[in-house]
Amino acid sequence: MQIAFCGGGSGGHLTPAIAVAEAILRQQIDAQITFYISSREIDERILSSFRWTCPQQVRRIVQPVSGVSGGRIATMAALFRSWWKCSREWKRKRPDVVVGLGGFASVPGLLAAAWLRIPIVLMEQNVVPGRANTFCRRWATVTLAGMPWLPEIQDSWPTPVVTTGVPLAEHWFARSPAGPRGVNEPGVNGPGVNGPGVNGPGVNGRGVNDESGVNELSAQTLHSRGPSNDGHHVRLLILGGSQGAANLNRLVTAALTQLFQSESLLGNLTFDVLHQTGNNDLQTTLDRYQESTRIQALGSDSDTGYLSDNPSTPNVATAATDEIAAGHRFTQRQEGGHRIRVTPFLSSVRSAMQDCDFVISRAGAVTLAEIAVVGRASILVPLATSRDEHQQRNAEYFQNAGACSVIDERRSQAVSELMERIRQQSVDTSFRKSQQTAAAALNVPDAAPLCAKQVLQVGFDKIKQ
Question: Does the pTM exceed 0.70?
Answer without folding.
Answer: yes
